[in-house]
Write a structure and sequence with these properties.
single chain, 637 residues, 26 helices, 8 strands, 5% strand, disordered N terminus, cell outer membrane, TPR-like_helical_dom_sf
C-alpha cells in the first residue's frame, strides 16, 4: 500500500481527486526536477508561467460552458435532417444543451481534464508546489518574489472558483500533500459551499497586495495578473456566492457530505449582496485608477467612407474585439481562433471557398430577440414595434441602409433595432462593413450572408440564418487568400462591472438613482436613453424599472445584451437559476437550405434543447467516486 501511495503522489503531489490509474503511468517530473525547477530566478519564473497554462486554455470558448451552454449559439454538424447537433470533437460542449451530459464520461470534465475540460486540479497542484518552493532561489529580487507569490495565489484561487462554479462544494487544496501521506489523507472531502467561497476570497485578498495595479510593459507582460484583475474577480466571486443558485437554494437543501454535514447554506443571506456590492465598487474604482475607460474606436486600415452609424457599430463591437483597449479589465493572451465559425460568407470569394468560412456558430432566433428595439425596451414591450408581425417580409430602405441592404428582402424583425443588435448579430440582408469593403456607401456590396442566394453544404453552414457577428473583426478577409485579424479573448470589461454593481445595488436596496446611473452608463454608450425615460415613453410596462423585481429583469437582460457571445451569459443564467427556462424553448431558425425567398423565410425548429434541474451543476465522474469514497456526487446525478 505504501508503494501505491508513493507512486500516486509522485504523479499527483497534491489533491488530484480523480481515478488513480489515470496517473500511474505519469512520469513523476515534480520529484525528479523539483530542485532544478527552482534553482534560479529564470527557472522559477518559468515554473510560474506553467501555472498560467490552463488559465490561458480557458480563452478557448469550446471549453467554456458560459459560451457552449448559454443558449446564445448552437453548433450544427452533419444535420441532414436537422435533428442531430454536435459531436465528440471540439464542439462537444454544445451537447450540454441537448441533455447529453452524463456521469460516466462527463462533458466539460474539469475534474479530470477530459471532453473539453482542463486539468484544474493539476494547475492547483503546480501553484501549491510553486508557493512551497518560491523562497529557494537566492537570485530572485524581493519585489519579484512578492509578485510571483501573489500571482500564484490568484491563480490557485481562480482555479478553485471555476471548479466551485461548476461543481458547487469541492475539496480545498491549499497545500501540497506530502509523499508520506496515508491513503485516507489523500482522499479529501468536499467542504461546505460557503467555506469554499470564503477560501477563494481569502486567497484573492492575500494576492492583491503583491500585485501591480496595471501592466507597465505590455510587450513583455500582457496577460499577467494585476491587482485590478484580482479585485474584479473578487467582485464576480462574491456576486456569484450571493446569487440564487448558491445562496440558500432549496433545490440543494438535502445535499450533505459523508459525515452528514449540509454542504449548501440552508437559507439565503441578503448580506452577501452587500459584500458583493462593496467589492464591485472597489473593483470599478481600481479599474478607473488604473486607466480603464469606455472604448473609443481605433481606426485600423484605409477607410473609404464610414458613416456615423457604422462608426457606432464598430465602437460597440471594438470594445470586445480590439485587443488590449482601456475598457478591457481582464484580457487573456491566446487569440480567438473561431472567427471562421462566427462569420457569414459575405463575399463571392468567401462563398466559393467554404473551407475558409464554416459559419457553424448559429444564433437561435430567440437569442436575436433579446436585443431591444431602437427605443431601448424589449421587442415584446414596445407598442410601436410590430412584435406579432416580426416574421413578415420587408424590403430594405434608405432610412436603414447602413444596417440592412437597400432593396433587399428580409424580415421585419431586423428593422428598428438598437445599435447593439446590428453590432452583435448578422442576418440575411445585413450590411457587413469590412471583409475587404471599407466603404459603407457602396450599394453593390451585398455583404449579406449565406442566405437563400448562397447555398451552403451540409457540414459548413449556419442552421438558423443568424450569425454571432460580434466575434468577427471587420478587418478579417476570408477567401482564396484568407487574412484573419485575430484578437485576444477578453474575460472582463468595464461595462460588465458597471452592470454587476447595478445588480448588487438593486438586490440590496431596490431601485434608486444610483442603480439607474450605472445601468444608464451602458445604455448611453449604446445610443439609448436611460432606463426610466425609455420605459416611461416606450414600454407597455412603464412602471417596470420602479420595482426590484422589474429592475432585476431589466438588469439581467441588459447584461445578456451587452455581454452577448463573450462567454458570460451561460454563467449568469446559471447563477440566476434562469438557464432552465431559456433552454426550455425550441431553438428556431429559417429554412436555410431553401433557395427561394418565400421558402427561406419559413420558421422551423432546429432542435429542442434539454436542460434539467440537475444540469445546473456538473457531475463528478463515477470512477472518481469509487476511487475516493469520501466524495459525494453532485445533486440529482
Amino acid at each position: 500500500m505504501k508503494i501505491f501511495i508513493k507512486i500516486f503522489l509522485a504523479g499527483c503531489t497534491t489533491v488530484l481527486f480523480s481515478g488513480c490509474k489515470k496517473y500511474l503511468d505519469v512520469t513523476p517530473d515534480n520529484i525528479a526536477t523539483l530542485n532544478s525547477s527552482f534553482s534560479n530566478a529564470n527557472e522559477t519564473q518559468a515554473y510560474l508561467f506553467g501555472c498560467y497554462s490552463n488559465l490561458q486554455g480557458l480563452a478557448d470558448v469550446r471549453a467554456n460552458a458560459g459560451f457552449t451552454a448559454s443558449g446564445e449559439v448552437l453548433f450544427p454538424i452533419n444535420m441532414q435532417d436537422q435533428t442531430t447537433l454536435g459531436g465528440a470533437g471540439g464542439d462537444a460542449g454544445f451537447n450540454l444543451m441537448r441533455g447529453l451530459q452524463n456521469s460516466l464520461n462527463p462533458i466539460h470534465n474539469f475534474w479530470d481534464g477530459y471532453n473539453q475540460g482542463l486539468k484544474l486540479w493539476e494547475s492547483i497542484r503546480m501553484c501549491n508546489t510553486f508557493l512551497a518552493n518560491v523562497d529557494q532561489p537566492r537570485d530572485v529580487q524581493p519585489f519579484d518574489r512578492a509578485r510571483w507569490t501573489a500571482e500564484a495565489k490568484f491563480l490557485k484561487a481562480y482555479y478553485h472558483y471555476w471548479l466551485i462554479r461548476m461543481y458547487g462544494p469541492i475539496p480545498i487544496a491549499d497545500v501540497a500533500i506530502p509523499i508520506s501521506a496515508t491513503s485516507e489523507e489523500v482522499r479529501q472531502k468536499q467542504q461546505t459551499l460557503d467555506s469554499c467561497f470564503n477560501y477563494v476570497i481569502k486567497t484573492l485578498d492575500e494576492s492583491i497586495a503583491g500585485l501591480p495595479p496595471a501592466i507597465q510593459n505590455a510587450a513583455a507582460e500582457a496577460g499577467r495578473i494585476t491587482s485590478t484583475i484580482a479585485l474584479a474577480v473578487k467582485a464576480e466571486v462574491l456576486t456569484t456566492q450571493a446569487s440564487p443558485l448558491f445562496n440558500g437554494n432549496p433545490d440543494y437543501a438535502s445535499f450533505k457530505n459523508k459525515d452528514g454535514v449540509s454542504l449548501f447554506p440552508s437559507a439565503a443571506d441578503p448580506l452577501k449582496w452587500q459584500r458583493a456590492a462593496t467589492a464591485c465598487k472597489a473593483a470599478i474604482d481600481a479599474a478607473v485608477a488604473a486607466g480603464a475607460k469606455p472604448y473609443e474606436l481605433r481606426i485600423q486600415g484605409n477607410i473609404v467612407n464610414m458613416s456615423e452609424q457604422t462608426r457606432q457599430l464598430l465602437t460597440l463591437q471594438g470594445a470586445f474585439v480590439d485587443g488590449w483597449n482601456p475598457e478591457q479589465v481582464w484580457t487573456l493572451n491566446p487569440r480567438f481562433g473561431w472567427q471562421y465559425m462566427a462569420m457569414p460568407r459575405v463575399t463571392a470569394e468567401a462563398a466559393a471557398n467554404v473551407f475558409a468560412v464554416y459559419s457553424n456558430f448559429s444564433v437561435p432566433i430567440a437569442q436575436s430577440e433579446i436585443f431591444y428595439t431602437k427605443n431601448g425596451v424589449p421587442v415584446s414591450e414596445d407598442p410601436s414595434w410590430d412584435f406579432a408581425g416580426r416574421h413578415q417580409l420587408r424590403v430594405g430602405d434608405e432610412a436603414n441602409k447602413y444596417y440592412i441592404k437597400q432593396d433587399y428582402t428580409t424580415v421585419k424583425g431586423n428593422f428598428d433595432r438598437e445599435p447593439r443588435y446590428y453590432s452583435s448579430v448578422a442576418f440575411d440582408g445585413a450590411v457587413w462593413f469590412g471583409s475587404g469593403n471599407t466603404n459603407d456607401n457602396n450599394p453593390n456590396y451585398v455583404n449579406a450572408v449565406n442566405g437563400y442566394a448562397s447555398p451552403p453544404d451540409r457540414v459548413r453552414y449556419n442552421a438558423t440564418g443568424y450569425w454571432a457577428k460580434k466575434l468577427t473583426h471587420y478587418q478579417s478577409v476570408p477567401g482564396q487568400n484568407t487574412v484573419w485579424q485575430t484578437y485576444p479573448w477578453t474575460f472582463m470589461r468595464l461595462s460588465g462591472l458597471w452592470l454587476l454593481y447595478a445588480e448588487c445595488l438593486n438586490e440590496v436596496s431596490g431601485p434608486n438613482a444610483e442603480v439607474y446611473s450605472w445601468i444608464d452608463k451602458v445604455r448611453t454608450r449604446a445610443g439609448l436613453k436611460g432606463v426610466q425615460e425609455s420605459w416611461a415613453q416606450y414600454s407597455r410596462n412603464p412602471s417596470k424599472p420602479s420595482t426590484k423585481e422589474g429592475l432585476r429583469q431589466i438588469i439581467h437582460q441588459e447584461r445578456r445584451i451587452e455581454l452577448a457571445f463573450e462567454g458570460q451569459a451561460g454563467w449568469d443564467l446559471r447563477r440566476w437559476k434562469e438557464l432552465q427556462s431559456v433552454l426550455a424553448t425550441p431553438f428556431q431558425g429559417w429554412s436555410v437550405f431553401n433557395r427561394t425567398i418565400a421558402g427561406y423565410y419559413q420558421l422551423g425548429t432546429v432542435y429542442q434543447p434539454s436542460f434539467g434541474l440537475r444540469d445546473y451543476l456538473f457531475p463528478i465522474q463515477e470512477y472518481d467516486l469509487m476511487t475516493n469514497p469520501n466524495l459525494v456526487q453532485t445533486p440529482y446525478w
